[in-house]
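W.,

You were right to be curious about this one. When I first looked at the sequence I had no strong expectations either way, so I just let the prediction run and decided to look at it fresh. Below is the sequence, 119 residues in total, followed by the output.
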Amino acid sequence: MGDRPVCVCCGKCCDGVPYKLDAKQRAKHRHVLSYDNGEWDVSSEQWQRNIEDSRFILEHWHVRKGVTQCDQYDRQRKLCKVHENGKPPVCTKFPYYDYEEPVEVPPGCVFEKVKKEAP
């Protein structure tokens, strides 16, 4: 694995989130949140990330004209409204998350070249 590019904050991953948010995915995120009810030990860092991500996705990602969009992204100014207050892991870990190679990236993203060069 070579050097990873640095995000240039172009907003391509926010203005058309590369994530298919269909009914099945919404149900998955609601299921994750159902564990955060005091009956389960969800104290691990991984569980807390999953819960934070699911809550953010369900509250702020919406499908419009077949495209998943984040309502916390200011399209006019090309800025994230929650950037200063702490983006959730689903945003800060994009596009690698815990993998060696980037996951699906939008066209024009600086990580697109890395994705194309991956074996």
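Here's what jumped out at me. DSSP finds four helices and four strands in the chain. And, maybe more interesting for your project: Residues 45-60 form the longest helix (16 residues).

Coffee later to discuss?

I.
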